[in-house]
Amino acid sequence: MEIKAKKIVLCDGVRTPIGHISKALSKITPEELLKLTIEGLLQKTSLYPHAVDGVMAGWVGQGSSAPNIARIALLQSGLPEKAHALTVQANCVSGMEAVCSAARHILMGEGELYIAGGTESMSTFPYLIRGPRSLKELRSLDSVKENWLKLWENSEVEIKDCIEEGLTDPVKFIGMAQTAEVCAQMYSIPKEAQDSYAYESFKRALAAEKNGFYPNHMVPVKKNGTVLLEKDEYPFLREALVEKPNMISRAPLMFDSPSFSMKDLYKKYGEHILGKKYVEGKTNATLTLFNSCARSDGAAAVIVTSEQRAKDLNLKIHAELVSWAFWGNNPAHMGIAPVFSTDLALKRAGISFEQLEDIELHEAFAATCLSIFKVGKEKFKHNWEEKFLKGKVNPHGGSIALGHPLAATGTRIILNAIYEMEKNKTVQWALATACAAGGLGGAVVLKRYEK
Predict the structure, then answer these.
(1) Of 7, 2, 28, 1, whose CA–CA distance to 16 is shortest?
(2) Which residues contact 173 (CB under 8 A, 6 or more apart)?
């Protein structure tokens, strides 16, 4: 096989509204969300199903209910049986990796057009019983039911919440919120700055919801003819935060309680808080639920194809996918990985940070975003903060306000970028970048398409 010299382009994309965990979309499975998104994309573009060579889809909470969820959604949405399907698990960059995987397949000549995206239903993440089936209590489902109370007392059996386990790094044994507080402490990011950033995210997101930016590429979620959700849920649940910003500052601190204090955090993770020591009465917690992203449900998808194939099918081209990069760092510092993936993607694209007129940054936590601003400037002289203040970073808000349906977010921020290009004709270059559990950063560089 040889790499084909083809220009990779992104055509239209759609996403579901993002539902808050345990709310409007709580009974919709991830495969249903992905199916609805693919169907919505086919309807929006009038794309002939047999033109699709495959589906690449991210899914973080993978389980046995939908093995190779990309294949299931492909078949359920009426795409051809012969089409390829690949499910990606790269944590929060899964939806971005799916887009890049589609591009690689095209460059290798394996196909010409793919639907790429991500799906997540954190509301339906299961609880797990883990242990060897050699135990008599675990030999069958019937034996599990019969011995349910005994399982809790068996040292060889673990009963887990898949959300909490999945959000805890198994190498450094640190949760995602703890990694954000580590960054906040290490880079001296005060709570006030985090709250201010969060307020701006909510303000921008609500404006985008109301001025039609998001509804323009959103498909409502319906069940049995009933509309369950037609706009992002969390921004409107928290609309009062924009009207009364002091509510953000009054939110309870995550690591300021008798059960787990800042002293405990330094004792457990101090080795990762480089250059800092805990000082009684002076070391303060900073993270709250309001300056962190919410757990969510949703799906997103975009058409990835070659320039020639898009022209042949008369598809609207929004952007050229010029480069991408993924970078690994210390899992305890996972939030700053986009600093490095961004620099590498820019080098591969042959452009400077200054040329970027739109940056879509996944807001896992305000602490990690502000750490990126600081580290990016120190390491590469990339002035993220200046671009943010000018409205060139997340002009329509981000994950703090919208929510974070894990595998869908990487695709969601790419959609933000291509539709910002459509809205703002001055944007020639855009970047979408995200951090991910395990210490990963992903970045894609997009260029306005010129015929």
Answers:
(1) 28
(2) none
